[in-house]
Amino acid sequence: MITFWKIIANPFRWGWRLLLFIREFILNIFVVLLMVVIVSIYLQITHTTPSMTTGALMMDLNGTIVDKSVTKNKFRLLGRELLGTASNRIQENSLFDIVEILRQAKSNHHITGLVLSLKHFNGADQPALQYIGKALREFRDSGKPIYAVGDSYSQAQYFLASYANKIYLMPQGMVDLHGFATNHLYYKSLLDKLKVNSYIFRVGKYKSAAEPFLRDNMSKAARDADSRWVGQMWQHYLDIVAANRQVTPQQFFPSFPTLLAGLRAVNGDMAQFALQNKWVDEVASRSTIDEAMTKVFGWNQQIQSFNATSIYDYPQIYASQQGAQIAVIIANGAITDGPEKPGSLNSDTTALQIRDARLDPNIKAIIFRVNSPGGSVSASETIRAELVAARNANKPIVISMSGMAASGGYWISTPGNVIIASSSTITGSIGIFSIIHTVENLLDSIGV
Asked: Where would I find the Peptidase S49 domain in this sequence (predicted)?
């Protein structure tokens, strides 16, 4: 009887062992493949250097420009290598990477010129545009030509295009210059109708952030402040682009009646209007522009276009990080307490970065880049206190203001030994406010 059961059990026993072997074999294969993939990705990240042909640097920016992008350059490059052109949908570009690439390219013998293709560029704040413009001016002054090519140009796109030796515009295109403006929504009447009581505590005459809950229109102080900075920013924009186009600001952007008369003279043709107004140098089709670029940079049979290297494929050279160093800490976004969120400036994370720089003996100074509208009082004080500690530790602090350093953004800037702002930086808004909404009248009206 025992022998009979052994005869029946043996096939099941060997079958089970075979299943275990197959399972372990497949699992081992999976682990080996995973390790190969990880090693391949690491090698791609550390050693990927895209081929660069002799020709133009194509500044084909996609998305917006920020002081610090979420996606690192090497991971972005890896995505382009693995996923192809579809991965080029970059939403954020590092301001400092772009400027560094332009400065390296001007002395690179493979780069013979620059082509600005900005149709997918969504914009940046004025100080960022001015910083890139400075790098474009340096590139142009090195003797290498810059060409701007566009179906149309927004104000931000045109600001960069104005640095080009020659600006091309498509026949159906336009240059959309309309000035700067600001507007706000006001909720006082709405809150009254909803029977919501708003208790607002405010310090500072020009602290207008709480006004939407207090009024149904803009106060004179807020209007004066906004009119001043908007007007100055637009005039600064005109001064720069007019100088780049070698005309006066009045010639570049005359009075509204003069603009209308010019538009009527060309029968509403926006491209011809831009040409007549000297905003662009030539109105031409895509094929005509490609032919002109081919004459300058040569033809690439492989890609069926003129020779060019995308700014995203440019092999940027990074400086060595050995010996004495200067820490660059970027404070970007609204200042908040609690967990870190994308687009916000977390006080604990930023304070820890400052503390690490203070305790690192190789860090000899700190550049603190601020681009913030303010935020939490306690969070701002956490960052400011850590900067004070760094300064007391004999670490010089240079505050570099970007597009905005207002309210709490200005407060965290005060410990700096030196504060540097762009002519287009929006700063100030000094003061504090707190809002408490209560709904006892609303609840009473509905029987609660």
From this structure: 139-284, 390-448
